[in-house]
Amino acid sequence: MTYCVALCLEKGMVFLSDTRTNAGVDAIGTFRKMVIFEKDKNRLFTMMSSGNLAITQSVKEMLIQGQKFDGVNLWNAKSSYDAALVVGKAIREVKARDEEALNSSNIDFNCNFIFGGQIKGEKHRLFNIYSAGNFVESTPETCYFQIGEAKYGKPILDRVINYETSLELATKCALISMDSTLKSNISVGLPLDLMVYQKDAIEKHLAISIDEQNPYFSMLRNLWGQKLTEIIMSVEDPNWSEQDHQTKISTHSNRLGPIPTIEN
Amino acid sequence: MTYCVALCLEKGMVFLSDTRTNAGVDAIGTFRKMVIFEKDKNRLFTMMSSGNLAITQSVKEMLIQGQKFDGVNLWNAKSSYDAALVVGKAIREVKARDEEALNSSNIDFNCNFIFGGQIKGEKHRLFNIYSAGNFVESTPETCYFQIGEAKYGKPILDRVINYETSLELATKCALISMDSTLKSNISVGLPLDLMVYQKDAIEKHLAISIDEQNPYFSMLRNLWGQKLTEIIMSVEDPNWSEQDHQTKISTHSNRLGPIPTIEN
């Protein structure tokens, strides 16, 4: 599996991906899921992928080779929307080529891409592109996308992130979201690729790979576990005494009755 | 969907379940997923269920009716293990009755139960019982089970819980695990049923239903979101300056190279 998350915020974008692939528990490998497309101060896109690796690598290869669809590729697309269309068309070309053979082996055509960035003169934009080649764009109300093993790392994003969140806080939040996933699911693994983009820069602000030895990430994950335990301990305990039953944690104004109890 | 979690700890047990069922987004209902079986100071079991409601209700009905399998039911089973076998056999009886008809409608035979408690003279024990009627028991190393929408609420458990955790802390942690799930997945919903059991008591320590109006749960969920944001803000930001690149968040000793960048 895979976990990738990207946020498109007022001040820029954050992309974070793991690098583990697996086909069963005994076939584990490390593959980069992030790739950056950069044309000097004209456009910069970051793409992350999940799903069948043979599919996602083929799609990536077409994009890297600059293959044109109706005359358009990532380098000459007029808008980020048009660039996302290029990614979608590359997916459809791989689908046309491989789906029948995959299905005959009982394998679904399965791939997902997060694609985003900025073309000079346009705002920064983020897209979630599906196996069918169609896609949705993020908005200020729904400003992040996840692909792969998304559930473990979703609560922290839902609790902390909004469109006005700073890039620093968003980066920490993405790293914690990833760490929650790493801790609870062995199909997601280090190293991580992190890309932070400041809007209108049209160049990488930060693009680094983070492994087990990275001091900041090690500090963050240790500190986080510790702080979580601290706050949960600092929150007032439910008090089980009869009096508190009535006030703190009680059935009063409860719309269901007591828990069904069968006695013998 | 459903989310249920149970912890079997040194000092006792905590069970927590939601009450939402859904068949698609337009067929949402409230059904209790927790039931308690109690025989005065002799035995006390708590059972929670997920999966197909028609199946889980049938299984529950057989257990409530005291149906015997090879002469054994929940009221006369000699051990909690034997009681878990009774639940497994009830599942198999429903399976024998309904599976063919379900399959002919392209519906899987799908149910999961968490079942645990204590019989006088034996320690408190917790089981995760599958659709096939087989089951596993928790251990001090793996002291909790989840069924249903388990992923959202797993990271907090993995970070905080161990076998020595107090019942108060475990209860708070289960409530936060549930709240993370409620916040990120609309197929899980209030009210909640909470049962706390102190080992060797062979009676309910606390068995309450928690709805939107419950003051303690409201306080906990508001406070938690706020505290999470506070700690994440209090953690040192990654510093993007060139110098700090080399020390705090850098590629040094990284086992992968830089993120692949395609230039044009």
From TrEMBL, chains A, B:
<protein>
    <submittedName>
        <fullName>Putative proteasome-type protease</fullName>
    </submittedName>
</protein>
<keyword id="KW-0647">Proteasome</keyword>
<dbReference type="InterPro" id="IPR029055">
    <property type="entry name" value="Ntn_hydrolases_N"/>
</dbReference>
<keyword id="KW-0645">Protease</keyword>
<dbReference type="InterPro" id="IPR016545">
    <property type="entry name" value="UCP009120_prtse"/>
</dbReference>
<dbReference type="GO" id="GO:0006508">
    <property type="term" value="P:proteolysis"/>
</dbReference>
<dbReference type="GO" id="GO:0008233">
    <property type="term" value="F:peptidase activity"/>
</dbReference>
<keyword id="KW-0378">Hydrolase</keyword>
<dbReference type="GO" id="GO:0000502">
    <property type="term" value="C:proteasome complex"/>
</dbReference>
<feature type="region of interest" description="Disordered">
    <location>
        <begin position="242"/>
        <end position="264"/>
    </location>
</feature>
